[in-house]
Write a structure and sequence with these properties.
Four copies of one chain form a homotetramer. With about 325 residues, chain A is of the alpha/beta class. Chain A has eleven helices and 14 strands. In chain A, the strands form three sheets. The first copy, chain A, has an eight-stranded parallel beta barrel, surrounded by six helices. In chain A, helix 3 links the parallel strand 7 and strand 8. In chain A, helix 10 runs parallel beside helix 11. The first copy, chain A, is elongated, with a radius of gyration of 21 Å. Chain A starts with a strand and ends in a 5-residue tail after the last helix.
Chain lengths: ~325, ~325, ~325, ~325
């Protein structure tokens, strides 16, 4: 449930109302961008129904909406949120392609990747410094050294960096070097990390968990928003189903659903979403058409030699082709690449 | 495994080779459209590897392909198959939209639906005469009477009909009245029905089962093709996953995968694929972009009064808007509506 | 919703009440075994709530139960239904093990299998005559010849036969030869077949579909019960999930849930449920403990040579061991093997 | 792949062999409990096959096993590992029931719960101090205060405590108060936390993620074992599937599979596994029968008033009945309660 106060309600009146609600075990969460008049109410839903809020003298409107997320909801925040990632606006008119290798392997590799994706029209650079790997014996990423290499490539090619953080204790290594922190699918419900990236003030690219519902994704975003950080970008990256022909099942229903229910930008990762380089192009085009705000794409200078995810990575040539083939669909969607 | 015979192999030579293979417990399935020179080999895979077919004097080429489907495969049939549904070519340049109500409810309802979808640019009419319903107490469709109403609407509005068959015993009611038989998701592995529709000679629209893999879908198609019926059209209509925000999870990965692995046309059903009228538009656009050959869309003159599936049906106005919004994406895909 | 009429309601009064309900578009389904006093009401649920049935002079009790299945429900049929399969009572005190090969391959094979399972304590024989195979090129079963072999083995070893029917047109081949018809997982929502086996009057062993919910399983049973056939036995045989270490995920939650919500017997198939012979024993013991009424187990005289499902079939020795290891758990459950 | 050195290989010889392997980019992981003669080899599998290790003069045996986990594997560690949780041996002859409320709510509540579960035969106390909640607005646990209350109840009722840790920074609050740390399903792939609990030296109860395969669960355990911590206990707590009648689908296949592939103890959580108090009993019995080493069960003094998970919590009476009904099955399994 949401409430909107009448125009002209004084600070004192507002405080009195909020304390009345608190006395009933209800919390009123201020929803930003509404002139301090809109609140999401959290509390026992039975109670919400019995309170006669519709007739309260200070309340102009009551919006009945049973969704448990409040700050992420479009209900009182109809306009799209645009998040700036190192100066690149995500969620606005531009369709933003963020590309780069699964992992930073060497200075030469990340530089070649950055040069290639910049040339083809990507607006930001992705690449893993800390890699969450299923096995402790797999390559875990080059850590802070990789962050330095990313920062150098970022400056040289004019691309802000998006890269995953696994441990809040590493936050200082990221600050000043990245345009946005990424929280990976495995950590979507790592609430310690969500709160820490929330408090960091940096933009956060939040990937959907392998078996998370869209409602759970919005509640994970809510943990970040609730720390006062409005810069949350959601990513659909495929869910786990019975189908084994593809690595995951890219859920584009989720993108359309999210665009209706939240004001936050939504990206699509067709690389993890399919696991097969040859399917990345068609699914990238579908992501544009379904209304996504951009893409995360894995590009490696030499996919066959990649230390991880080679099977789903595009070569620079294949990525340039993808960008060319994307253009008419971006036009059809009324956006710009 | 596939083999291609050398040009100029005589009938007698071919028969000798085929009987050699049979003697080894291998079956050679002729793949149509290759001048009687291409065969898919079915048999124990260990045997296939040990036979020195590469060096056989009558064989020009051996294609190692472990897929269990043969006639549905693109391996020896690279060009797209175009299936004529009552004169409408499905699988060619045109993007074919088939629309209509979940079930035929009355003469007035199906006529209004047909008029609306024809006006908006649909090329064929869908509508259920026999309905497979989870509960025996739900409306089961008006059967042969509904087929007559469909046939009348078909003639009046110039739209061939696509409608579901549940029982091979009803086949004669369909013949002469429909452009294509539909086999529904629940019957995708009803082999009795697949063989019967295969033998019917009528085009078949085959929907993917709720938890069928794409390989299983192609093997279901193979049952129909194996009866000598080349007119098979596949439909992705959403799979069953853990996500409950949408009725099913529309698997557009599957469409891209199918377009690479089979020459058969592939349609998308965003109505069942999402279960929510407000998501049909964005997913329809995504279907165009991912490379589908057309759509199956539920349209009802008055969705709120529909006897079934009202929540996912479009009104005539919403359908007309969907068609308008589809156009730039169909253009981007280099096709025609 | 269910209603129970007052004792002593006359036939005329009952008819009057039923026609009152019909006039409101409600159907009252007689629930067997309640002295013609209990009815399940089917119709628009909003209507059900507004009718003041609690105060109706002929009605003793109204049971609010929103489940869409009526005849399968325990709500008015608290006692367990016992179904006789060729004289073997399924659903009563005995824990009934039905065993045999995936497919009937030869007279010698089925005879050896029947001898082995009878010696180890199985009470009925399973074995496929008609096999639903994913590929049209796989072994499809020996059909009517296999039914004759099953019948001969049945007589020789004193084991009634349970075997799958794929096509209602084959029903006459089954009659007189089998103790129960099996409807397989792929056909759980083949309503044509469900109605036909319902009308056959033979007991039906109904397997849960690969992605069917337990409610859908009960509604499939309802199709059979609704034809006047009370002999329905349910089978949990594993569902399709993301896990690939086992062929399917055996859902023993479903067994416990079913035993609370329906009076029909419930068997477990640990062979298909795991796909791995080495896991059949532990899951069979778990099935006893969770409250199942029996098992369907694949046993082959020589699993390594089986034409199908060899990986999940037990040898005669392994089956004999399974039966020995089952015994203390059957005792613990207060039942008899 | 695993290797076992010949008896009598000297330290110098062993070091030489290990450095030969390292020179080939292979890591040899010592497997504990094998007299420093057994090693799991990690490296490119193609390389492993081409090395002629079978003929190496220092190597007695090569075990070909493609599993990516080494220290968790039974291949070279056939005997069961027994983990002591505050003096209670888990994984041995005793079937260990760990019970208590979802969350510690108050001193009175946790004391009443501990008293009840101790009286009924539980050997350890569970209860959440830090709660991972889907929504940031839900009760998040009383944190360090709850740990103090748990410690007090532990002492008073003689039950070691098992409770979840969300953040490695809180570790010092747990030390000295708990018998084992729990890593919850949402954090199963939070590698930062896995490494931290591994280094803590405390026993770890590791729950399977909602959509984690059993192989991924063993690799998560491998992260802990790889820090030198042998005290890992696995928990099957239900996976996410399409079925909605139960909260999760308890995967007892996984328990049987794990008992074959790992030497680590395996518990079952039928409370989260079903989400329904009335199904906890039958699934607990099934867990015994399938070979689990114990249970995690939610018990609350007054389930209807619980701040979380009330629907799946047992009352003290229901828990006492569960323990009584468990006994004959524990006997049948040849174990002790």
């Amino acid at each position: 449930m949401f409430i909107v106060l009448k125009p002209g309600v004084s600070d004192a009146e507002r405080e009195r109302l909020l304390s009345e609600l608190r006395a009933q075990d209800l919390t009123a969460l201020a929803v930003t961008g509404n002139g301090e008049r809109a609140y999401g109410l959290v509390g026992p839903s039975s109670l919400l129904e019995t309170l006669a809020l519709d007739r309260h003298p200070l309340i102009e409107e009551v919006i009945r909406d049973s969704a448990p997320y409040k700050r992420a909801s479009r209900a009182l925040h109809p306009e799209d949120t645009v998040v700036s990632v190192g100066g690149i606006p995500v969620g606005g008119e531009r369709f933003v392609v963020i590309a780069g290798p699964c992992a930073v392997e060497s200075a030469a590799q990340i530089d070649a990747a950055a040069a290639a994706v910049a040339a083809a029209g990507a607006l930001a650079l992705r690449g893993g410094a800390y890699k969450p790997r299923t096995s402790p014996y797999s390559f875990q990423g080059h850590g802070p050294d990789a962050l330095s290499l990313l920062a150098a490539a970022s400056v040289r090619h004019g691309l802000p960096v998006v890269t995953e953080i696994l441990d809040a204790a590493d936050l200082e290594h990221f600050r000043g070097r990245v345009g946005a922190l990424q929280v990976g699918a495995r950590n979507m419900q790592n609430y310690t990390l969500l709160r820490a990236v929330g408090r960091s003030g940096l933009p956060v690219v939040l990937k959907r968990g392998l078996s998370a519902t869209v409602e759970e994704l919005l509640l994970a975003a809510e943990y970040i928003l609730n720390e006062g950080n409005d810069g949350v970008i959601l990513v659909e990256r495929g869910i786990r189903t019975f189908e084994t022909a593809t690595r995951n099942t890219l859920d584009l229903n989720a993108v359309a659903w999210l665009k209706r229910h939240t004001h936050l930008p939504v990206l699509v990762d067709p690389s993890h979403g399919t696991g097969l380089a040859e399917l990345v192009g068609p699914l990238a085009r579908a992501a544009v058409a379904v209304g996504a705000d951009g893409l995360l794409v894995e590009v490696h200078p030499a996919p066959a030699e990649a230390l991880s995810d080679g099977r789903q990575s595009l070569s620079p040539d294949a990525f340039a082709r993808l960008m060319r083939e994307l253009r008419p669909f971006v036009d059809a969607a009324g956006r710009r690449l």
